[in-house]
Design a protein that fits this description.
- By secondary structure, the chain is an all-alpha fold.
- The protein has one domain.
- α2 packs antiparallel against α4 and α7 runs antiparallel to α9.
- The longest helix is centred in the N-terminal third of the chain and has 38 residues.
- This is Phosphatase PAP2 family protein.
């Protein structure tokens, strides 16, 4: 994309963000009171499965590190260290993903058993978990399946392509980590009560413009929306039309997860809007950095 096009799209995105945040400033509570449905299957589905992109960014990056290490086996100390690190990252994030899914699945089962709305869940602490044996089994199966699929994809790549993917993996991991840390820090410092945590009179509602400090509440900004919007980063690993499709998918997935969080009563409209555009900004900055480094690397090789 030409620089002029980037500038135009950046300006349009910034304008949309400002307009939506202004609307949220005055209508946050009214929007939530209108659309909340704790029994929403739409909200429950994206609450359960919406966060996969942040885990997959790490998992794919770990797989790429292992492949790059194998092709650099002539340097055993470096290759061994990188391969171990890549495996630990992949295995750890696979386990974290299964833990996340297990928690929400257990919450669904508990809600159905106790006659509660299906989408009721505690977003700030584990509401339950899969049995240990089931957790380990699912983790191992998922790890093996993902590793096979990713390695089959990487096997078709040349050494030069793997080297470039290794650079992408480093920046993709940094992007996911930075976005997660920024989101977690703001959550803690803003201390905003979630819609489902409001008292009966809703007197504890606060505007997104009002940081409350550390209160234990973590509504602003939305972690699910951040994790979902990182699907855009998955486009970095693709080329051609596949890259474009993953990019569009990332935008749509982030938006759908954001809307689902408002529907299920886990976040206000401002929480998901701010999270979406903040994550997109972080992705843009790292994308520009990696594009610069790749272009510089190609110029040196020529």
């Amino acid at each position: 994309m030409e620089e002029q096009d980037k500038t135009r799209w950046f300006g349009i995105s910034a304008l949309v963000c400002v307009v939506l945040m202004v609307i949220a400033t005055f209508a946050d509570l009214a929007i939530s009171n209108t659309v909340i449905d704790y029994g929403s299957w739409f909200g429950t589905f994206f609450q359960t499965f919406g966060e996969f992109p942040v885990y997959f960014v790490y998992i794919i990056s770990g797989e790429i590190a292992m492949t790059y290490a194998w092709r650099k086996k002539a340097r055993p100390l470096f290759a061994g260290s990188l391969a171990l690190g890549g495996f630990v990252l992949t295995a750890w994030q696979t386990k974290q993903y299964v833990n996340e899914e297990g928690s929400y699945i257990a919450a669904i089962q508990s809600n159905l058993k106790n006659g509660k709305p299906i989408g009721m869940a505690n977003s700030d602490s584990a509401a339950g978990a899969l049995p240990v044996a089931a957790n380990i089994t699912v983790t191992l199966i998922l790890l093996v399946v993902i590793s096979i699929l990713v390695q089959l994809w990487l096997a078709k790549k040349s050494d030069a392509q793997i080297a470039q993917l290794m650079l992408v993996a480093v920046f993709a991991t940094a992007t996911a980590w930075f976005a997660s840390q920024a989101n977690a820090t703001l959550k803690q410092d803003w201390g905003r009560v979630r819609p489902y945590e409001l008292n009966k009179a809703q007197s504890d509602f606060t505007s997104w413009l009002h940081p409350n400090g550390i209160t234990g509440h973590k509504s602003f900004p939305s972690g699910h929306t951040m994790a979902a919007t990182l699907a855009i980063v998955l486009s970095w690993f693709a080329t051609g039309k596949a890259r474009q499709r993953w990019f569009v998918f990332g935008i749509l997935w982030g938006a759908l997860v954001g809307l689902s969080r408002v529907r299920i009563g886990a976040h206000f409209f401002s929480d998901v809007t701010f999270s979406f555009f903040l994550t997109a900004l972080i992705i843009y900055i790292f994308a520009e950095l990696i594009t610069y480094l790749i272009n510089k690397r190609e110029a040196i090789l020529q």
